[in-house]
Design a protein that fits this description.
The protein is α/β, with parallel strands linked by helices and 193 residues long. The chain has a single domain, classed as 3-Layer(aba) Sandwich (Rossmann fold), CATH 3.40.50.170. It is built from 6 helices and 7 strands. Helix 1 runs parallel beside helix 6. The protein binds 5-O-phosphono-beta-D-ribofuranosylamine (GRF).
Length: 193
């Protein structure tokens, strides 16, 4: 079984999708740990409800990003984590942290990468006037939203769409895509070990 930590900062609807998918008896990954960099977020409640170990590593308690990441790394190691899934995790990870987890960090991003990186992605898509958008799961590398894309799902951008309506349409697809990609990656990792 591939042991997965999910890193969150907010609502955790993608976390929920992963938790639900991992209940399938043949699912190759176990959601073993949830870490939030923000206290009191809904994602932590979701983890508690699913009886998944969960904890807060509050980035505000650290002066330097490196110190925060050192604790994060040690915690992941202590829990014998194989793979990290970022799911609405709102901290950028440094190159040195990423280098410790090569091809072991996945992220979900609400655009069709390489289009629209960074923040306010749906607004970027609306401003660009594209007729479709979607979501991508990719390996995390040192560049922001830049690693190899592992899977994508597409949605139409409709007349009169707002950030809210487009975000909601994309989020529904995220909940399908992330569990599918994690299944594939975990299966591949398992077959190597
Ligand atoms: C999602 O849109 C994800 O793509 C982005 O942040 C949002 C997180 O939503 N990185 P949730 O916390 O999983 O509900």
């Amino acid at each position: 079984m591939v042991e997965v930590a999910v890193l969150v900062s907010g609502s955790g609807s993608n976390l929920q999708a992963l938790i639900d998918a991992a209940k399938a008896p043949d699912y190759p990954a176990n959601i073993a740990l949830v870490i939030s960099n923000r206290p009191g977020v809904k994602a932590l409640e979701r983890a508690a409800k699913a009886n998944i170990p969960h904890l807060v590593i509050d980035h505000k308690a650290f002066k330097a990003r490196e110190a925060f990441e050192a604790v994060l790394h040690d915690t992941l190691r202590a829990h014998e984590i194989d793979l990290i899934c970022l799911a609405g995790f709102m901290r950028v990870l440094t190159a040195s942290f990423v280098a410790k987890w090569p091809k072991r960090i996945l992220n979900i991003h609400p655009s069709l990468l390489p289009l629209f990186k960074g923040l306010n992605v749906q607004q970027q898509a609306l401003d660009a006037g594209v007729d479709k958008s979607g979501c991508s799961v990719h390996f995390v590398t040192e560049g922001l939203d830049d690693g190899p894309v592992l899977g994508q799902r597409t949605v139409p951008v409709l007349e009169g769409d707002t950030v809210e309506t487009l975000s909601a349409r994309i989020l529904r697809e995220e909940h399908i895509l992330y569990p599918q990609v994690l299944r594939e990656i975990a299966k591949a990792l398992k077959s190597r070990s």
